[in-house]
Amino acid sequence: MTSAMVRLFPPRTPAAVLIAVWGMLGVVALLVSAIVRLTPLAVEPLTTGMTPLQWALYVGWSLFNLYAEGYKGFQKAFVPRAVARAFYVARYPRPLHVVLAPLFCMGLFYATRKRLILSWGLVIGVTALVTLVRGLDQPWRGIVDAGVVLGLSYGTVALLVTFFGVMAGRPITVSAQAPDGAPQ
């Protein structure tokens, strides 16, 4: 089965490293873009004042998102798979896969059926939530955005640490979740 976990030492040729870096750079750019756009909205309630309940929600939601989004969602699930997919596309480059390497790393195409459903479901779900949160007034929007900024920031750092760890010699031990029949 092609989605099985394997212990893989990624290729180190200059072309392979460049492809993997391009994939990760694109993912990091998307995450940083969201962090930069949301940070002013997340900080605004700190400067305009909040009630004790709003402060409690601000802190509680932020801590919850550090754990749920940052640690569980990014560090334990998304990050290892995205890094594995970055080196998979570097090992088995196809022109379209290389050009779209950031989307490839996010599992949005050329993946198992389950991965495609989960990845696209996440994109659609996040888009729906963003639309709903945009309608909130401050400080409520800032409370939600503070948690998201912290979760995304944690996830971005985890992605970079994991990627550079693999570059330094740590093997990949998770599946790239390429479709059945794809080279492994």
TrEMBL record:
Keywords of the record: Membrane, Transmembrane, Transmembrane helix
Residues spanning the membrane: 15-35, 55-74, 95-111, 117-136, 148-168
Keyword Membrane tagged: yes
Protein name: Uncharacterized protein
